[in-house]
Amino acid sequence: MFTSEFQEKEKKEISLPGKKANEVKELLQVIYPTVERKPPDEIKEENCHYLLSLAHEYQMAAITQRCEDFIVKIMKESFSVKKDPDIIAELVFAQTYNLKKLKQASIELAQSLALPELKKQKGYDEIHSENLQEIMERMITRLQKFDFLCFLRFVLFFVVGNSPMADKESNGEWQDFTQPWKFSDVVLVVESEKLHVHRAVLAFRSPVFEKMFTSEFQEKEEKEISLPGKKANEVKELLQVIYPTVERKPPELIKEENCHYLLSLAHEYQMAVIVDRCEDFIIKVMKTRKPNKDVIAEVVFSQTYDLKKLKRASIELAQNLTLEDLKNDQVVYDQIE
Q: What CDD domains would the database entry show (predicted)?
């Protein structure tokens, strides 16, 4: 522009239409580093994407590279502490600007997601076919490496009527997971208790545990995994739902006393089937009773966990209440969206 025959060659003012002033300023701060401000401080999560976009447009290869390296670093750090970054959005961004390192890093992280989780990611439909194929092939390879043979043995053992979780001497009552059993291969440490469980069954039931056991998380090879902030008795009851026995039918395990915290745990660990069962149970119990102030609490609960069926059922029952009944608990009432 300044050395060829463009009209801007001799101009003192050059317009950059379509650009944002604050973004161009930040690019200039990267171009013109000062002693007081070191260059690495200038590239941050809030600006790395638009700085890269501008640097790419103006063919600033060094700045493009620095921004790409920064995005890869932040994405991997977020993933390592179990904060799911927008992996697919980053992959689409990498496709747009032909960023090979970011593309490769995004694909490597995407392969550790469960397929339903992958499809929920923003930009899934924009993944180039060759990149989607690579992700799927890596997923298959990862699952092949994960030993589900032990899980199949567990299922067969259950099908023939000899559930490893039932204590025959106690008439089919549950074990409490505090002792090792035939197929247990990992320990969950909850509060001060150690709960012996089966790694593959947890992975089969939960995309969160699957990722934990098959990706590069430190828990992949550990024999003891801590679940901070959880209550031992609540986790035990969730495990009893996960590991059903012939002697005790699963529906009996979900009760009024536990349905809400079981749903909360199942939601956190992405156990969709158990979330659905708990939601159906809550609706069933709610409909057997005369509508009262608890209906509003269920509306708020359904908002928290995005439970569409419970939300609809709660609202239908709430319309039978008086305004005074609705506002009986003002704190809960004020939480209605």
A: BTB_POZ_ZBTB_KLHL-like (cd18186)
Give the tens place of pLDDT for each residue, 210-233.
887 776 666 566 788 899 999 999
CA of residue 81 relative to chain centroid, distance: 12
The 10s digit of each residue's pLDDT in 280-293 is 999 998 888 776 66
- Bridge partners of 190, per DSSP, are 193
For the ranges 18-27, 108-117, 187-196, 215-224, the lowest mean pLDDT is seen at 215-224
Phi/psi at 255 (nearest 5 deg)? -130, 170
- What pLDDT does 144 receive? 59
Rounded to whole angstroms, the Cα distance separating 165 from 183 reads: 10
Measure the CA–CA gap between 157 and 77, rounded to whole angstroms.
Answer: 41
3-state secondary structure 176-236: CCCCCCCCCCEEEEECCEEEEECHHHHHHHCHHHHHHHHCCCHHHCCCEEECCCCCHHHHH
